[in-house]
Amino acid sequence: MSNYLSIAAVTAALQKIIQENIQIDVPGARATTVRPDNSSSNLLEVGVNIFLYQVTPNPAWRNADLHTRRPKGDLIKHGQAGLDLHYLMTFYGNEQELEPQRLLGSTVRALVDQPVLTPETIRATLASPNLAYLADATLEEQVQLVKFIPSTITTEDLSRIWSIFFQTPYSLSLAYQGTAVLIQGNKPGRSPLPVRQHQFYVSSQRPWIEQVIQQGGPYQPLTRGSTLIIRGKQLQSESIMVQIGEALVTPQTVNDTQIILDLAALTATEAAALRAGMQTLQVVHFENARGVRRKVASSNVVPFVLCPIVIGETLEQISPLQTEDHQSYACDVTVTVDSSVAPEQQVLLLLNRLSQQQSTSYIFTAHRRDNTTNSLTFAVQAIASGEYLARVQIDGAESPLTVDDREHYCGPKLIIAA
After folding, report:
1. Strands 30-32 and 47-57
2. Is residue 176 predicted with pLDDT exceeding 90?
């Protein structure tokens, strides 16, 4: 592939091809690469000016580089961009002696004879001491050779191009296209090892989940203390686990139509892998062959919402109350939950005021976290004094509130004391 210098290398090679031909056909003619409105400052009297006026994506290479990353964003190969270069060639000279038209014919003949940039032409161009700044160009290494073809351009398009040059009279012009330059990225990718051995497993007993409910009732929130009842078909296997998000956990009771999974009885390692929020649940069958456990079948995926639990009845204020008008206050509040929260998860603090006279609610966003943690900090601002019921929402899953003997919500609380 070619690097970032390849666009300039194409222009330099094109200039060399044209220069070698026009200087024979029209003695004293020169090929330049400046803006047409700067030609007077470069004292171009007889010659051809090559101006790169537009770069567009190449249609053939546009979709050739779609799969450069895995679904999680890991780079698996170098990225690339296929570009077409659009040149405006302007011809100058003595109109009485038809020099612009002779230069036009010489240029077209040169590109008819040499429509492709060969590696030899590129090396000869870059060997010039005047082009030392292009010495590191890798244009000759790209898999497709650059080709020059005349562009189909109307009089209207040509007038629009010339209209961008301020107070510059029109000169005889011709549009050409260089296709295609493949610019490759520098960021390194990662390539996994090849598959050493292929093994195929066919299972007619694929598990199927029909329903997931909580033992305490279908309308109770699912937490890390809940017991799940998974009902379905063909659930039993020699080795079975339940996958919740990225966590693989071991159920306590399994038969062909029902699995009972007590989340409170999980090992510390299994419990630490659970994340609050909207996730997926799946039954996975494994097979042990030669001491290696391999997945052989997995069930359909069902949605699963694990709600966090706020630890403690009162939220902790880690900074003193601050006030400007003695009516609203601000402070930092720390909330500890029973599950780990990853840095990319969205966390909100929902506050509802406990007052018979006035019902006020607030929503605050958690501070940014660099590591997985169960301690969350919120900046509470512009809040009135009083007692508030507090809930934590993690990726849409809300922590439940506690109730008293009268079936009224009573906690957890945040107390803002004036």
Report:
1. parallel
2. yes
Query: Do residues 402 and 314 lie in contact, with contact meaning Cβ atoms separated by under 8 Å?
Result: no
Nearest to 276 by CA among 365, 411, 399, 413: 399
Contact assessment for residue 122 and residue 79, using Cβ atoms and an 8 Å cutoff: no
Q: Which residues of 42-74 are buried (b: 16+ CB within 10 A; e: fewer)?
A: eebebbbbbbbeeeeebeebeeebeeeeeeeee
| Residues 185 and 78 sit within 8 Å (Cβ to Cβ) | yes
**What backbone phi and psi angles, to 5 degrees, belong to 107?**
-65, -45
Inter-residue contact 180 to 61 (CB < 8 Å):
yes
User: How many Å separate Cα 331 from the centre of its chain?
Assistant: 36
Q: Give the integer Cα–Cα distance in Å for 233 and 242.
A: 15
- pLDDT grade for 300, boundaries at 50, 70 and 90: very high
Q: Is 105 helix (H, G, I), strand (E, B) or coil?
A: helix
- Residue 105 phi, psi (nearest 5): -65, -40
Tokens representing residue 387 in the block: 């007692």
Beta-strand relationship, 80-92 and 253-254: unpaired
Place of tokens 């966090």: 308
Name residues whose C-beta falls within 8 Å of residue 258's C-beta, 6 or more positions apart in sequence: 229, 230, 231, 232, 235
- CA dist 418 and 163 (Å) reads 69
Convert the pLDDT of each residue in 354-370 to its tens digit. 876 667 889 999 998 88
Q: Which two tokens stand for residue 39?
A: 């030609």
Q: How far apart are CA 392 and CA 398, in angstroms?
A: 6
What are the Cα distances from residue 238, in Å, to 252, 253, 282, 351? 14, 13, 16, 48
Q: How far apart are CA 189 and CA 54, in angstroms?
A: 31
**Rounded Cα–Cα distance for residues 247 and 394 (Å):** 17
CA distances from 144 to 62, 69, 83 (A): 14, 23, 12
Query: 397-398 and 361-365 as β-strands: parallel, antiparallel, unpaired?
Result: unpaired
Spatial distance between the Cα atoms of 64 and 229, rounded to a whole number of angstroms: 48
Instruction: Answer yes or no: is pLDDT of 41 > 50.
Output: no
| Residue 99 main-chain phi, psi, to 5 deg | -65, -40
**d(C-alpha 68, C-alpha 94), whole Å:** 53
Q: Quick check: pTM over 0.70?
A: no
